[in-house]
UniProtKB/TrEMBL annotation:
GO molecular function annotations of the record: starch binding
Single GO cellular component term: outer membrane
Residues annotated as domain SusE outer membrane protein: 23-126
Segments forming domain Outer membrane protein SusF/SusE-like C-terminal: 256-333
Name of this protein: SusF/SusE family outer membrane protein
Source organism superkingdom: Bacteria
InterPro entries: SusE (IPR025970), SusF/SusE-like_C (IPR032187)
């Protein structure tokens, strides 16, 4: 009887073991995800800096079903219209509704290299995925029109007023002190062969109005000095040091250099657009990198330490180009301390 019971016990254990093995063989196979829906509260957004922290737009998404109870990662993707999201900006969309502030959307516009102050067409979609090893699924692409603004950094400033702009400090080009250390710089276009001007501490004549000596487009400043003078029309880089009262104006022309535009040995010159105050060019470019520089020299050169914004940095990192093609290039140095560029593929 004891042996009979043992046989039944062993048989039962074998059945349980076989059932457990069968259970281990059950696999969960994900199916292609269903497309989530996407809706937006607006289809046109005009962005203004004074409302930077306010909500600009909100997006509401649906859910995606991958065939089992998976953890799905959602994100909003933004791209220029017609690019098939080849270059995109991304915002997490964990909640059903995602609110985007004016500042956030303006940052996205900068990442997409949209032109400031004009209506630009972009597209927005939801991406849903369960794994980096599994293809995502996408919502419909929502069309959106955006007008962005240039997010300027305000620095301590001085003003250049002279015969080239009717001696009006309020509308004169600014010189900026990046470190608030009494050193100022900025770029000014002098269209005449000889220009008289002063440098004022306020956007009026009510502060200190610096004149002084002028020798070889430089000299010593004085609050009671004669008008300053620059000889030769051109686009000048002006520096002021209020500690030693020195000033200097260096005439500049601008170019690009790097393997993205040919090589690091030969410059590609840009052309000054007097009406817009920018340096421009239509440039055939390769995948690679480049810099902007003045007078075919690295004494004054600009790169970009943060590609997510369009602000240039003096002596900054090389600017990368992802793909070969013909590009419209714009270099803008007219707003002191907020030097920007745009590289747009045709």
């Amino acid at each position: 009887m004891k042996m009979f019971f043992s046989r039944y016990l062993i048989s039962g254990l074998l059945i349980l073991l076989l059932w457990a093995c069968k259970k281990d063989e059950v696999k969960v196979i994900a199916k292609p995800g269903s497309a989530p829906s996407l809706a937006a509260t607006l289809d046109t957004v005009i962005l203004l800096k004074q409302y930077a922290d306010d909500q600009a737009i909100a997006f509401k998404r649906g859910t995606s079903d991958f065939g089992y109870n998976a953890v799905v990662k959602y994100e909003l993707q933004f791209a220029r219209k017609g690019t098939n999201f080849a270059d995109k900006a991304v915002v997490p969309a964990d909640s059903i509704t995602t609110a985007i502030t004016v500042r956030m959307l303006n940052t996205i516009a900068n990442q997409l290299e949209l032109e400031y102050g004009v209506y630009a067409d972009i597209e927005v979609r939801i991406s849903a995925t369960i794994s980096d090893n599994y293809p995502p699924t996408y919502s419909n692409a929502k069309a959106l029109v955006v007008s962005s603004y240039q997010d300027l950094v305000e620095y301590p400033s001085m003003y250049v007023a002279g015969d080239f702009q009717a001696w009006t400090p309020a509308t004169g080009p600014k010189l900026a002190s990046f470190k608030s250390d009494k050193n100022y710089e900025g770029y000014v276009w002098f269209p005449s062969g000889s220009t008289l001007f002063k440098i004022t501490s306020l956007p009026s004549w009510d502060g200190t109005n610096y004149g002084g000596t002028s020798t070889n487009n430089g000299g010593v400043l004085s609050g009671t000095g004669d008008n300053l003078k620059v000889t030769g029309a051109g686009y000048y880089f002006i520096t002021v040091n209020l500690d030693d009262k020195s000033w200097q104006a260096t005439r500049t022309t601008w170019s690009m250099i790097g393997d993205a535009v040919g090589s690091w040995d030969t410059d590609v010159d840009l052309t000054f657009d007097e009406a817009k105050g920018t340096w421009t060019g239509t440039v055939q470019m390769n995948a690679g990198a480049f810099k902007f520089r003045a007078n075919h020299s690295y004494d004054i050169n600009y790169g970009d330490n943060k590609p997510s914004d369009p602000i240039l940095n003096k002596g900054g990192d090389n600017i990368k180009v992802a793909a070969a093609g013909t590009y419209e290039v714009t270099l803008s140095l007219s707003i002191a301390g907020n030097y920007t560029y745009l590289v747009k593929k045709k």
